[in-house]
Automatic annotation (TrEMBL):
This is YjbQ family protein. Belongs to the UPF0047 family. Signal peptide: none annotated. The lineage of its organism: Bacteria, Pseudomonadati, Bacteroidota, Cytophagia, Cytophagales. Pfam families: YjbQ (PF01894). It comes from the Bacteria.
């Protein structure tokens, strides 16, 4: 079994849903050496998340942002954790709803994503800063 791991620092992005599939592949080219395996992408933050969804139509990413902003509103007076800004507690909630990692099968040296699938960085803060990932791939 082969195991590869690479830390990745993503540049700062605006709030929203951003395709990062290419950055993951560039960071860990050893995926090409694995015939059958798994790739895990893990984000080391509590106010941003990862998910897999539509990679072609950018309006899907805009609709994701709209939906999550409607679902988890800012400035709720019931939030106790509010000293880091009005976007902070909602960002933690959104990150918990979506999750901190994704698993993708590797098949014949490629991520076995569907034709219309891509990996999203879900940035839930107005100014979240750079984001750190750990990308691990293993298999035969």
């Amino acid at each position: 079994m082969k195991i590869y791991q690479q830390p990745v620092t993503l540049r700062q992005r605006t709030r929203g849903f951003h395709l990062i599939t290419g950055e993951i592949l560039n960071a860990l080219p050893q995926i090409g050496r694995i015939t059958t395996g798994i790739c895990q992408v893990f984000i080391q933050h509590t106010s941003a998340s990862l998910t897999i969804n539509e990679n072609a139509d950018p309006t899907v990413r805009k609709d994701f942002e709209m939906y999550f902003n409607k679902t988890v509103r800012e400035n709720d007076p019931d939030y106790k954790h509010d000293y880091e800004g009005s976007d902070d507690m909602p960002a933690h909630l959104k990150a918990s709803l979506l999750g901190s990692s994704v698993l993708i099968p590797i098949r014949n040296g490629e991520l076995a994503l569907g034709v219309w699938q891509g990996i999203y960085l879900c940035e839930h803060r107005d100014y979240g800063g750079t984001r750190n990932l750990i990308v691990t791939a293993w298999g035969e």
